[in-house]
Amino acid sequence: MLNLSFNSVLIIAAISVLVPAVLGLLPRLPVPGAVLMVVAGIVVGPSVLGWARIDAPVQVLAQLGLGMLLFLAGLEIDVDRLRGPLSRLAGVAFGVSAALGVLCAVFFWLAGQASQPLLLAIILMSTSTGLLLPILKDAGEATTEFGQLVMTAAALAEVVPILLLSLFFSAAAKTTADQLVSLAIFLALLVLIGLALTRVRRLHGLDRLLDRLEERSGQLRVRAALTLALGCGVLAYRFGFASILGAFAAGLLVHLVEVSGREPNEQFLTKLEGIGFGFLIPIFFISVGVGFNLKDLLNHPSALVEVPLFLVALLVVRGVPALLYKRVMDTRHAAAAGLLQATTLTFVVVAAAIGRETGKLSPSVGAALVTAGLLSAALFPAGANRILAHGRKAASARSRGPVTALPGSRTSRNGRNQPDSS
């Protein structure tokens, strides 16, 4: 039995190596690696080939991978950007998303397709920040006003749904008032931890100690960051919230202490990403596919019908509010922003799992939501990339300007100068 368990880990590890190799050989493949890993997990899982299963080792590594993913998502969020001038526009757009999410959820509830409209509304208003950052970097838009606005809006659409999910749908059986009190205490403790860490980081000589141990086996900065993530996760769980809230908060704290207001240590950030994206996070995405019950989806025709409906709902809830961005950018960039904002996968997977564990979602509805999230991550970024690429080509053509005819010549239909026959 033990050998079989580690066989599953080995198969999942092999997939984590194969997927980036395929993407490297096929750079034009318009599908994020996370989507390919989930699909590969479905293929090797019990739904198709039955080579791998969710046993104890896989489950532990997958939970660590999920925590690491949320930790890195928090680490990527620039808190200063949330206080900038673009935050007001992003905040208004997210408010519209929240209203549209509630309306869509009520529509599904009235149609008998959702028993928990609030949970569905929270899922529909989410965006996966971790999927958007590499897309914007590859498109050369990460530092532009467009990229800043999209990432600010995505940060809001990740922070708020995580808070709402922890507040209303944690595993602990508490009233909403008790949950609010617990959340207030938890956030107060996080503030105290942040203040304590800020004071500690001001100690004379601490930077030299951290840099010296960074080059040795001690790796104090990395160990401290990961211990903080585990500690915040345990703290959140003790207060009755999902541990992902603690991991996400730990990422925010590390960003505030180690990145904001100082020159970030590139080796430190690279090592954290190496641990996460190099090992733990791929296991999480592949295990999502392994644990995905394709039969629940195929055996329920209503669930198959829900997949395109959920996909359209994601586009409406997160895409339509991007029309407000036309105040500061052209229509093409606003459309691309809408597609990127409608891209979600990580939060859908987490929320669907919590919904199933707490009995708020049926397995078939959970499978339909995860499938819709997969399709959004596969289709919407590809569409946004095409829109941005077309815009760059049009801008390049405009920068070259019209063709000027030479004296004594005429311009043909193909734009080439030809001698005047007259």
Describe the structure concisely.
The protein is an all-alpha fold and 422 residues long. It has 18 helices and two strands.
CATH-scheme architecture: Up-down Bundle
Structural class assignment: mainly alpha
The residue fraction in helices comes out at: over 70%
CATH topology group = Na+/H+ antiporter like fold
Taking pLDDT < 50 over at least 5 consecutive residues as the criterion, the unreliable ranges are 403-422
Number of domains in the coordinates?
1
User: Under the CATH scheme, which class?
Assistant: Mainly Alpha
Strand arrangement in the largest pleated sheet? 1-2
Give a verbal description of the structure.
With 422 residues, the chain is mainly alpha-helical. The protein contains 18 helices and two strands. It has a two-stranded antiparallel ribbon. It is globular, with a radius of gyration of 24 Å. Mean pLDDT is 82; it is low at 403-422.
Topology:
Blueprint: H1 2-25, H2 33-44, H3 56-76, H4 79-82, H5 85-110, H6 117-124, H7 129-138, H8 145-168, H9 176-201, H10 206-214, H11 220-238, H12 243-259, H13 266-291, H14 294-298, H15 301-319, H16 331-341, H17 346-357, H18 363-400, E1 409-411, E2 417-419
Antiparallel strand pairs: 1-2
List the defining traits of the structure above.
422 residues, mainly alpha, Na+/H+ antiporter like fold, two-stranded antiparallel sheet, 1% strand, disordered C terminus
